[in-house]
Design goal:
Layout lengths: L1 H4 L5 E4 L4 H13 L4 E4 L8 H6 L7 E4 L2 E4 L1 H11 L10 H22 L7 H17 L1 H4 L13 H12 L12 H11 L2 H6 L2 H5 L3
Parallel strand pairs: 1-2
Antiparallel strand pairs: 1-3, 3-4
């Protein structure tokens, strides 16, 4: 754990186009957290510090003094508790549990499909694209529920999970039809946020160039 003692400021090991890394960067930007972002390309090399810190050698990995965390959900909830303003999770246990369940469904129903695109063959990608498209379009009414953010009047952890996914849709050929106005309006509001724009890497900006 030598790498921990060498770093006195918060450090995030992050992939420049990695969806889960983007999620953590979004949380950090929304809360105004200052941290050193170390860009890691796991396809080219397994950064020695990262392998020393995280037994899985995965991103994102967060180092906060002598604490090392991995898994985007664990990191995001830690940051929400460590920096409580603005809060991204409800305070009361029932609402908090419901929000966690929605995040779980976002990950299981949508993020799971997106994460398979890069490693799948063309036939599988076509099937994944169709499944993701159909599932999102079928949920248009949820996005059009009348709240500015996903099922909430304020930005929450649900949006932090959704934003990186939504940003990547055109890059992976998932084109939301104009008739799904709820989704398009939601994306427009979310992408216009200063915190979301700050969360983007240059490589992620190029996805929608």
């Amino acid at each position: 754990m030598a790498a921990v003692s060498r770093r006195s400021i918060m450090t995030l090991y992050s992939g420049p186009t990695h969806c889960d890394s983007h999620r953590v960067r979004f949380v950090m930007a929304e809360k105004g957290i200052s941290a050193e972002i170390i860009s890691v390309d796991l396809e080219e090399e397994r950064l020695m510090d990262l392998v020393d810190l995280n037994p899985y050698g995965e991103i994102p990995t967060l180092v906060d003094r002598d604490l090392v965390l991995y898994d985007s959900k664990v990191i995001s909830e830690y940051l929400d508790e460590r920096f409580p303003h603005p809060p991204l999770m409800p305070v009361d246990p029932v609402s908090r549990a419901k929000a966690r369940l929605v995040v779980y469904r976002i990950e299981r129903d949508w993020c799971r499909l997106l994460m398979q695109f890069d490693s799948a063959d063309s036939e599988t990608v076509a099937a994944l694209r169709k499944e993701l498209w159909e599932s999102l379009v079928a949920s248009n009414e949820v996005f059009a529920s009348g709240t500015p953010f996903f099922l909430s009047d304020e930005l929450t952890m649900m949006d932090c999970a959704l934003g990186p996914l939504m940003w990547r849709l055109p890059h992976y050929g998932v084109e939301i039809p104009p008739s799904s106005e709820g989704i398009h309006d939601y994306q427009e509001r979310l992408f216009a946020l200063e915190s979301f724009q700050k969360s983007l890497s240059e490589a992620e900006r190029a996805m929608r160039a």
